[in-house]
Design a protein that fits this description.
Blueprint lengths: L9 E7 L3 H12 L7 E6 L4 H13 L4 E5 L7 H11 L4 E6 L2 E3 L3 H8 L4 E4 L3 E2 L18 H10 L12 E5 H6 L13 H11 L3 E4 L6 E3 L10 H14 L14
Parallel strand pairs: 1-2, 1-4, 2-3, 6-9, 7-10
Antiparallel strand pairs: 4-8, 5-10, 6-8
Helix pairs in contact: 7-8
Amino acid sequence: MGMADKKISVTLLISTYNWLDALKKVLDGVERQTVMPDEIIIADDGSKEETTTFLQQYAKTSRVPIYHVWHEDKGFRKSRILNKAVAVGKCDYIIEIDGDVIPERHFVEDHLNVARRGCFVCGGRVMLKEDGRISPSHYFNCIRSKILRAIVMRMCDSFNVKYIKGCNMAFWRDDFIAVNGYDEAMEGWGSEDHEFAARLNFSGVRYRRLKFGGILYHIRHKIASRENAEKNREIFRRVLLEHRTWAEDGVNKYLV
């Protein structure tokens, strides 16, 4: 049995950076959800004023409270802004997505149905072409089935980094804090989600793979700079080697 009927409170955490058109599509998808989150937190890695202005207006008509957590643009600092956003959240469970993925209308409902204490969940995404159509190789990822979902979860219940995507991840706030959240030493694109998930796994939080549910549609865009990718991969490799569970530079400094 899932936890959708057990009154857990849910944060939808959305990271964004200077792509308002995409963020609007994401939020349109959120408004169509069969089950709404209890709050929406926008983790903004330094977007310009137009994003702030839009969100101030959007908050006035949103079906749930929406909070905009922003810091100055000093390069790619996604780990830092996610930590700051989680620190202001008030809910038990966090579903994390990126600001370039449109949630299918059952997205939140599907995540809640597979939420379990002592576990974190990672799902995938459906890639869209430039014209907004689904890439043919991703048609299979559009299937939503509770039976197939359960089979995959039973078969793929051990940590496998290739299935980890921070754009579609869910975890308990208490578990996030227990490993000190994201490692802010990881700046620039790459591996921050793998590193965080590995520490969760080493701390005893079990990985669950979500497929055939929790569907997201990824808006096509240019590839981000990979300038710091190797540095981040090295941090991740050390975590795997040493079975680390704690981020030295993490969320604890933002907690009251």
